[in-house]
What we know:
Order of helices and strands: HHH
Largest sheet: none
Oligomer: single chain
Radius of gyration: 13 Å
Number of helices: 3
Shape: globular
Structural class: mainly alpha
Number of domains: 1
Helix content: over 70%
Strand content: under 5%
Distance between the termini: 31 Å
Amino acid sequence: MILLEYPWEKDYIAAILETDDGKLANLIATARSTILNRVDELNITRAGTIEERVALASALRGLQKMKIERLGGA
């Protein structure tokens, strides 16, 4: 069982655990959108913790790396 600290992690975990590359592009796009929406929300409200902001940045880098390595796209 994976314990999630932030709501946006659900989409991120779905993408990183996907083994079917045919489904991966859509899951990466969904996770990226969810993460960017949270970043926007934090920037507007000036809320959140430094830990969440670091986790968001790390998740975005992880998605980009996965996209390049598994789907061959930038």
